[in-house]
Amino acid sequence: MLRSLLAAALATAATLCSFDAQAQANVLYGLVDASGSRSRPPGGEYRWQLDSGNMSRSFLGFRGTEDLGGGVRAVYRLESYFGIDTGATGGYGGNAFWGRDANVGLSGAFGTTVLGRNVSPLYLTTVTFNPFGESFGFSPSTRQYFAGAVVGDRSWNNSVAYTNNLRDPLRVHFVANAREDTAGVQDNGHNVGLSVSYLSGPFAVALAAEKIRNSALPVPAGFDRQRLVQASATYDFKLVRLYGQAGWVKTEAATHTRHLLFQMGAAVPIGQGLILAAYGSSQAKTDVSQITDRTYSLGYDYFISRNTDIYIAAMHEKTFQLSSGNSFAGGVRFRF
User: Fold this and answer.
1) Most buried residue among 32, 159, 194, 308 by CB atoms closer than 10 A?
2) Mind listing the pLDDT tens digit for each residue in 12-41?
3) pTM more than 0.85
4) Segments forming the whole domain that contains residue 237
């Protein structure tokens, strides 16, 4: 079960930047995630709420392909986040309507090359090599990278992306974006990212590196560039699948910051469900300060069917000089 789930996770991650050879002419697909929660951020107060996307952010997508002959196909993808609790578009405030992915290109034996808004290599390795996936509610790794250390968005605007043939055990994912002058957007140059992954039976490993010089998201004062490296691995012992990640992020701005990030986790099959556990540590250093965030998460995900699962999850977060944060949620996901 764990092996099939990892294969599904890797396939899902891969399809964010490529297209399956058997894709229909046009396909509507997506995911809906809703949950009730009681949470308190570090230094904040408890509150009850209905959330969208605690385990996976809700989205709607369209993808399609046309056979051009000679083994070459035209492909496109349009994906939009939305809030199931309010009906609002976008994954967060200010996010564009097609903010998940929006691209078009060509695919064949050479791999897939698309132009538009494309998911970054680091995001794919981060969400694939941790037991909670892309959960911004409960994944220590996803939260500490993409709601803390990394200034770049999940996907990059004005970019070109390439992936090789997904049937190869050695997989390459390259993304670079063009520098464009846009009002209100910090732009110091090009973004470049590369990941190399190797899959062999129960074992998978990946190395990702990026240089970020522009972002559609807010950046620190005096921002110039950000460089980062991440190594990830997972192994299926049948009774348990283990995950591990280690990363380094250096931000050059008015105040230089260095992040050291570490994550370890496990997924244990129990009947038709999985027990999920993860620990993550993010240490941010400047010339005058050091802040460490430690996050512990535990959850249970029960699969009612191939497309529907229900989950419960809890998280404890401790940040220096702030009261601890705690979250608990129970929800349901539906894939279509």
Assistant:
1) 159
2) 454 444 444 444 578 999 999 999 999 988
3) yes
4) 2-335
